[in-house]
Amino acid sequence: MRTLEQVRERFDKSLTEDTFLNFRIEVLGAYLADKLEDPTKVLPLTEEAVKAELLDYLDFAFGKAINHRGISASRSIQKLSTWAWILDLDDLVAFAEDDKNYPQYGVPILKKFAEHFEIEMPEAILDWPDGKPCVPNCDEGCGLPDNLNLVDMLPEVLDINTSPENSDGT
């Protein structure tokens, strides 16, 4: 379990990070009375209290994934990762912060959290970590086609001509 001083240091560091939509500070700041508008609402920095916050939010995060809510799902993963960091669960943090585990609105990450805390995942997303969509041919991004190759798609997505006659960059 991280100390209050470690939480403060991470909060201060997070303020200077150039991270789009840095939601980590919301989680960390809740444990620092001097960072809250109402210091009486500071959360206790105990393993039980932090775990309770994480588990409550995990349920919320499942809903964001099920409803294909991109930014909200990403925010959920960042917050869950921060609570895991506070609890000193570095393996879980590393898994959550590895972008390759984020497809399908972070469901593989949510599954890892559910397994770690021994809770059941909602039935609606049980197959998602295996790359199966919510419904066949879902166009919302929850399924991964078997033939997906992001490296081959990159030039097309970026509109780059990769033919040999243009190898000099022209």
Any overview of this molecule?
The chain is an all-alpha fold and 170 residues long. It has one domain. It contains seven helices and no strands. The protein is elongated. The termini are far apart. About 9% of the residues have low confidence.
Summary keywords:
mainly alpha, single chain, 170 residues
In short:
The protein is mainly α and 170 residues long. The chain has one domain (4-145).
Look at the structure and give the mean pLDDT: 81
- How many β-strand stretches? 0
Structural class by SSE content: mainly alpha
Strand content: under 5%
Biggest sheet: strands, sense, closure?
A: none
Number of structural domains: 1
Separation of termini? 54 Å
Percent range of helical residues: 40-55%
Radius of gyration: 19 Å
Runs with pLDDT <50, length 5+? Answer: 145-160
Q: How many separate helices? A: 7
Order of helices and strands, N to C?
Answer: HHHHHHH
Silhouette: elongated
Tell me the layout of helices and strands.
Blueprint: H1 4-16, H2 24-29, H3 47-66, H4 70-86, H5 90-97, H6 107-116, H7 150-158
Helix pairs in contact: 3-4, 3-6, 4-5
